[in-house]
Amino acid sequence: MNQSHDGFNPFSVLCSQTSLGGSLFLLQRMKKYIQDDWNKCDLTKIRTITFLCRMFPWSFNLGRAVMAIDYMVFTLRLIHIFAIHKQLGPKIIILGKMVKDVFFFLFFLGVWLMAYGVAHQALLFSYDPRSKWIFRRVFYRPYLHIFGQINIHEMDERTCTYNHSEIDAGAEPCLSTYANWLVVILLVIYLLFTNIVLVNLLIAMFSHTFSKVQEHSDIYWKFQRYNLIVEYHYRPCLAPPFIIFSHLHILIKRHIRQIPSAKSQHFGEKWESRKQGTCLKMN
Fold first, then answer.
1. Quick one: CA torsion of 6, 33, 72, 79, rounded to 10 degrees?
2. DSSP letter (8 states) at residue 125
3. What CA–CA distance (Å, rounded) separates 203 from 255?
4. Is 256 among the domain residues?
C-alpha cells in the first residue's frame, strides 16, 4: 500500500501485500488481499502502469490520458492515511458507504435519464441520422439538464436542412417542431422528479448512513487503527522496489531454513497476554 513506489515494481508490491497474511496459504492471502478496497485501488494503479509500459510512440496522447487517471488514483489513495485519526477515520467508512448509496441511486437515475433522453431525441431530432449525436443527446444532454444546462433555443425553429449528406458534413439538422410543446412538458416532469425526488432520496440515504456510522464511530476507528497497526507490524522494513531483497530474505528464512517469524510470535504473545488479562478482569 505504499503510494510512491507502486508503479516502479508492481510485482514487489504484490509480494509485499500477500506476504502479510501470516500462516495463511497463498490463495487465501490473495483472496484476502483482493477483498480489501484499498488493495483494489492499488491493483488499478498497477494495471494502468502496466498498460502504460506497453505504449508505443504513436499512442502518446492515450498514454497521457491513462497517466492522468492513474495520478487521480494515486492521489485518492492518500485518503487511507486518515484512518489513524480518531475524527477522520470514521469519515472514511462513511464515504465508502455513501459511494454504495450513490451506486444504487444511479439505477433510478439511469432509468429516468434513458426514458427522457429517448423521448427528447425522438421528438426533436428525428431527422438527424448521425449515431454518435443520437447517443450524445440521449445520455449526455439529459444529464446536463439536471444541473440546469438547458438550451431552450433547441425547441425553436432555425436555419437547418433535411439533407442527410449535408447533416453528415456538419450542417444543422432541422427540428421536429410539431411536438415541441410535449418536450417542454416532459422536461418539466423530468427535472421535477430528478432534482427534487431523487436528489432528496439520495440526501436521505446519506443522512441515514452518516447517523448509523456516527453512533459507533469509536468502534469503527479502533478497528481501523488495529488493522493499520497489524499491517505495518508485519511489513518489511524496505520499500518497493528494494523490498524484493526482503522477500528473498523471508523466503530463505521461513521456507528453506524453516525459522518462524519473530514478529508473529511477539505479536501473538502480547495479544494472548492482553486477552487473558481482560478475561481475568471480567471474572
1. -100
2. -
3. 53
4. no
Could you tell me if residue 33 is inside a domain?
A: no
120 domain residue, yes or no: yes
- What is the identity of the amino acid at 20? L
Q: What grid cell was written down for 175?
A: 427540428
SS (H, E, C) 185-213: HHHHHHHHHHHHHHHHHHHHHHHHHHHHH
Which residue range forms the structural domain that includes residue 124? 90-220
172-212 tens-digit pLDDT: 666 666 777 888 888 889 889 888 888 899 999 999 988 88
Q: What is the dihedral of CA 61, 67, 70, 71, to 10 degrees?
A: -120
How many structural domains does the chain have? 1
Position 76, amino acid: L
**What confidence score (pLDDT) does residue 204 get?**
92
pLDDT the model gives residue 23:
47
Residue linked to cell 499512442: 59
**Whose CA is closest to 175, among 214, 135, 221, 126?**
126
CA angle (76 as vertex; 145, 82 as ends), nearest 5:
120
Q: In the structure, what pLDDT confidence band is assigned to residue 37 with cuts at 50, 70 and 90?
A: low
With respect to residue 59, please indicate whether it lies within any of the assigned structural domains.
no
For residue 92, the one-letter residue type is: I
